[in-house]
Amino acid sequence: MSWRDNLIRIEPYVAGAQPDKTDFIKLNANENPYPPSPKAIAAIREFNAENLKKYPSANAVPLVKAIAKREGLQPENVFAGNGTDDVLSLAFRAVFNSKKPILFPDITYSFNTVWCDILRIPYETVPVDEGFNINPDDYARENGGIVIANPNAPTSIGEDLDFIRKILDKNRESVVIVDEAYVDFGGVTAIPLLKEYDNLLITRTFSKSRSFAGMRLGWAMGSAELIAAIYATKDSMNSYPVDSIAQAAGIAAVEDEEYFQATLKKVIATRERLIREMRTMGFKLPDSQTNFVFATHPEIPAHEIFGYLMEQDIYVRWFNKPRIDNYLRITVGTDEETNKLIDALRDFVYEKRWQAREHALNSGWVTED
Fold first, then answer.
1. CB 96 within 8 A of CB 124
2. Could you tell me whether strands 314-315 and 25-26 are parallel, antiparallel, or unpaired per DSSP bridges?
3. Could you read off the pLDDT of 260-302 as tens digits, one per residue?
4. For residues 326 and 311, what is the distance between their CA atoms, to the nearest angstrom?
5. How many whole angstroms separate alpha carbon 220 and alpha carbon 337?
6. How many other C-beta atoms lie within 10 A of the C-beta of residue 309?
7. Is residue 149 a contact partner of residue 181, using CB atoms and an 8 Å limit?
8. Rounded to an integer, what distance in angstroms lies between the CA atom of residue 357 and that of residue 335?
9. Is the peptide bond before 105 cis (omega within 30 degrees of 0)?
10. Pseudo-torsion of CA 74, 75, 81, 85, nearest 10°?
11. How far apart are CA 187 and CA 177, in angstroms?
12. CA 24 to chain centroid
C-alpha cells in the first residue's frame, strides 16, 4: 500500500478564471466594482503595524459588537470569520453531525458539495423547477439539515420571508442555514425570524456589498447556542481566525452606512440597465436580486458568447454543468465596464443573426423581399 492511497480524493471548487494580466474587464467573480468605504481604507492606512506582534482578539469581539449593533442583535448572536466560506465550513462542521443527509438545491453555491465531501457529511440535492425556483414543500422530509442561498447563486433569484418561514416550520428539528451573501442588493433578509426560530443560522459576507473580496471577512447570526457551537469548532481548529487589520477595516466599513447605501444604489441601477439592454437583444434572464445577472440567449449557445467576450478581454462566468450549461453569470460592473459589455454583446448578437440570415438565404429557406 502506497502513501498515495491515503491522499484525499475530492473534486474541488473551481473559481472563475483569474487572468494573469490587468488590461481586461473582470465580470466573473461577483466582486463589487467600487472600492471599500473610505473610512475602511483609512482604518487600514492608520493601523499601527507594531501591534501585529500581538494576537488579535480571539473571537473578533470589537467587530462582532459592531455587526450586532447594526443588525439589532446581541454579540452572543454573532460569529465573525475569514469570509463566508470560512464561516460556512465551520458551521457545516458544527451543526451537521447527523447520519441523515442534509438538503440543498441542485443549482446553488457549488461549494456546498465540496464541504460535504471533505467533512463526510451525507447530502442530497433537491431539483429546482424549470424556472430555477425552489419549492419549500420539497424540503418537508426527514433530513440532517438544510442550506438555502437567498438570493440564490448562480440564478440571482430571491425569495420572500414567507418562503423561509415555510422551510423553518417544516424543519423544527433541523438546523436551517440561509446564506445571504447577496441579500443587500435587493433580497429579503431572514433576520426578523431569528427571534422565532432557534434553529436558524444566517450567513453574510463583506466580499460583495462591502467591496472586501480581497480582505476575507464574513459572519453568521443565530441563536446563542448555534453561535457557541461554531465558536467551539473554530477554537478546536484555529483560535485566532480574523486578523487585527481585517477587524479594524471591518468595523469602519460596518459603521459607514452612508457610503454602503450609496454604493448599493449604483450597483442596482447599473444592474437594472444591463437587464433592460440584454432583453432588447433577445436574452432571457430573471429579475435579479444580486450583483449579477443569469442569462441565456435562445439563438446563441452560451459557450460561444463566453468565448467571444473572452476574445474582447471581457471575462464572465460559464458553468459547464447540467441544466445551466447554456447560461452565463455576469457580474455587474461599473457603468463604463457595463457599456463595453453591452456593446460587445450587441455586436455579437447582430453578427450571429446576420450569419443565420445569410445561411438561410444561401440554403433557399428564405428569399430576399
1. no
2. parallel
3. 999 999 999 999 999 999 999 999 999 999 999 999 999 999 9
4. 19
5. 33
6. 22
7. yes
8. 33
9. no
10. -20
11. 16
12. 22
